[in-house]
């Protein structure tokens, strides 16, 4: 057993867990946050993405014990109170949601790519950066459009173009 403590969406969560416990299972089972999904057994789909110390990680691919002491942000922690994150709002406005199963991971991936690459994203970069996310509804077009819209919004391009 390992004693694990991490901050999840600003709240401290502690538990004694089996050493083999995955971060995604800690988030869903111990923190009670079920927006982080498991969509594969092969570390390919990205449905389980969370931000750990500001960087996107596949939470099915690491142990909870490896996140001991970390700051984790899940899809439930992306909005500011009632105010959707610009990426969340853009998914809604651009029909980037279909069944929604991949959406938490897509949104975390988008937040991470905008943080790393800056808001001036072109479509080719967005498609390349989404390489680790699978949408089984295969609706990538509107997802890419939503991320581009969010990036433009965050860079001020959208406002400047109006
Ligand atoms: S559940 Fe983690 S990559 Fe698919
Ligand atoms: S919206 Fe259904 S898996 Fe992507």
From TrEMBL:
<dbReference type="Pfam" id="PF01799">
    <property type="entry name" value="Fer2_2"/>
</dbReference>
<dbReference type="InterPro" id="IPR036010">
    <property type="entry name" value="2Fe-2S_ferredoxin-like_sf"/>
</dbReference>
<keyword id="KW-0001">2Fe-2S</keyword>
<keyword id="KW-0560">Oxidoreductase</keyword>
<feature type="domain" description="2Fe-2S ferredoxin-type">
    <location>
        <begin position="2"/>
        <end position="78"/>
    </location>
</feature>
<keyword id="KW-0408">Iron</keyword>
<dbReference type="Pfam" id="PF00111">
    <property type="entry name" value="Fer2"/>
</dbReference>
<keyword id="KW-0479">Metal-binding</keyword>
<dbReference type="InterPro" id="IPR002888">
    <property type="entry name" value="2Fe-2S-bd"/>
</dbReference>
<dbReference type="InterPro" id="IPR051452">
    <property type="entry name" value="Diverse_Oxidoreductases"/>
</dbReference>
<keyword id="KW-0411">Iron-sulfur</keyword>
<dbReference type="InterPro" id="IPR001041">
    <property type="entry name" value="2Fe-2S_ferredoxin-type"/>
</dbReference>
<protein>
    <submittedName>
        <fullName>Carbon-monoxide dehydrogenase small subunit</fullName>
        <ecNumber>1.2.7.4</ecNumber>
    </submittedName>
</protein>
<dbReference type="GO" id="GO:0043885">
    <property type="term" value="F:anaerobic carbon-monoxide dehydrogenase activity"/>
</dbReference>
<dbReference type="InterPro" id="IPR012675">
    <property type="entry name" value="Beta-grasp_dom_sf"/>
</dbReference>
<dbReference type="InterPro" id="IPR036884">
    <property type="entry name" value="2Fe-2S-bd_dom_sf"/>
</dbReference>
């Amino acid at each position: 057993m390992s004693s694990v403590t991490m901050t999840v969406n600003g709240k401290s969560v502690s538990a004694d867990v089996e050493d083999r416990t995955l971060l995604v299972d800690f988030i869903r089972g111990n923190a009670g946050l079920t927006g982080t999904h498991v969509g594969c057994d092969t570390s390919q789909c990205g449905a389980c993405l969370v931000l750990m110390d500001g960087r996107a990680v596949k939470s099915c691919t690491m142990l909870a014990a490896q996140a001991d002491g970390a700051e984790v942000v899940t899809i439930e922690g992306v909005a500011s109170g009632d105010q959707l994150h610009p990426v969340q709002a853009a998914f809604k406005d651009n029909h980037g949601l279909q069944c929604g199963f991949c959406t938490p991971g897509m949104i975390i991936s988008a937040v991470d790519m905008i943080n790393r690459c800056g808001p001036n994203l072109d479509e080719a970069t967005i498609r390349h950066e989404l390489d680790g996310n699978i949408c089984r509804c295969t609706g990538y077009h509107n997802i890419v459009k939503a991320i581009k819209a969010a990036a433009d919004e965050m860079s001020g391009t959208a406002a400047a173009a109006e």
